[in-house]
Amino acid sequence: MGNEPHYVWIWLALVKLGCTASLLNNNIRSKSLLHCFSCCEAKVLVAGADLQAAVEEVLPALKQQGIRVFILTEDCSVEGIESLCDKIQQASDQPLSPQLSANIDIKSPALYIFTSGTSGLPKAAIVSHEKLWMTSFVLSLVGVRSDDIIYIYLPLYHGGGFLMGLCGAIEKGITVVLRRKFSASQFWNDCRKYNVTIIQYIGEIMRYLCNTPKRDNDRDHKVRLALGNGIRADTWAEFLQRFGDIHICECYGSTEGNIGFINYVGKIGAVGKEHFIHKMGYSYALIRYDPEKEEPVKDSRGFCIRVPRGETGLLVSKIGERTPFSGYAKNEQQTEKKRLRNVFVKGDLYFNSGDLLKIDNEGFVFFQDRVGDTFRCIDKTT
Ligand SMILES: *[C@@H]1O[C@H](CO)[C@@H](O)[C@H](O)[C@H]1NC(C)=O
Q1: CA 9, CA 76: separation in Å to the nearest integer?
Q2: Nearest protein CA to atom 7 of ligand 1, as residue
Q3: Which residue among 69, 199, 317, 370 has its CA within the 20 to 30 Å range from the CA of 48?
Q4: Which Pfam families has this protein been placed in (predicted)?
């Protein structure tokens, strides 16, 4: 499904039933679609009305696996695809039996969200209810108020739009303006029309907005906060100069990672600032990394070496009860690749972010480079 209201209702309904939802990219087709669908061992496919042709293409394979297929239409004449909208209309509004979700707890998987690597097929990051719940507080942390209106155009099948945007909005109880797809020419018109106060971004989007022809009404809007990641320092300055006094809140984190930073003070160029919350229960470090050998540098005893403040190092974050790493669905090999053992003492266990960062004396965090197989998942189709 693309970004549409049904996406939200269906997901909420699935959670109520105790189902785990695997959020598929609505642009993938045939082999990739089947791979992503199957790698979480999904049993049911629900598709938007506009995706019927894509579903029909993989229908024989789905039939073979005994998958039930629903499409969001009033009726459907294709054998093997059932319409869903008519059934929603007829469904009872009585409360569901709590028995249905009795086996779900905070550690249970709530979602699978796909992340890509530079090599190989997409991997499904397991997002537990705990992670979903914690991410939903980011909006509060950055000062979103109950009268704010958030504009969501980032795809709901990624963590940015779904976890931070949608779940954050649900947690705050704020109004969501949901757009199917990013449009540089319509962006500010939408913001004006719907009184948007909060926007989300990824680096390229901010550049696209700065590249649109200048207009007299560039500063005529109510947007006060932009939340996202990957904006370059030069774009950042240009954006503020052109579109006015918008607080840009650059964030660092990943769907599967167990550590995040927020640049809540708006210092240009930083992806985050260390916060007292980080001292409570989080244990992370920047360790020396050898880019030639593509591995951490070890000391004479075979342990990793913390870099001094102000120097670049690989971010690793201890895996523990409060900072879990759930890994990838049915993919122990990729999960293990993100685990680093015997980092500072024998037997310890860390999450390897694959990101080289620098933290200065004031605690500002700067992104430097990405190493190995990982890269930030930015959807080119937006
Ligand atoms: C936006 O705000 C203005 C002024 O407060 C109000 O008149 C208008 O109805 C609002 N628009 C929407 C779509 O809510």
Answers
A1: 21
A2: 195
A3: 199
A4: AMP-binding
